[in-house]
Amino acid sequence: MKQHNKIININKTFTKEIDDDLTWYLVDAKEKNLGRLSSKIAQLLMGKDIKEYSPFQASNKQIIIINSKYINVTGKKDKQKTYKRHSGRPGGLKTENFNKLKTRIPNRIIEHAIKGMLPKNNLGRKLFKKLKIYSDNQHPHAAQQPIELNIK
User: What is the pTM of this model?
Assistant: First the structure.
């Protein structure tokens, strides 16, 4: 009678779980470039700056962005960049340029840029909820004692 040896998978990878304690960060968007700021924030939200990074785990960071109405873009993008939305009805496409959206809803500009840099799945939606954006320098998260980040 033959004995079957158990096959053991020696190629298993065990990842260290990320701690549950939240870290709050504060970023001032005044006079910052939109793309540079949002790519750094997207990397922080995904946790790519920590040693134990894994693409399927959500990081334990909450990010607060203040002064979103003072964000800058380079070149002629303030007149040429358009944002589209659709009501779902026939002929319901609305387009708006950067300057008009900046005066109307300045938070949506940064939200749109960062959401495009996050994963397009459940994890990306979960990470996006960890982002808080405010158009001026007042925010209701002072009790969390956020650490100020200087992103260039």
Answer: 0.87
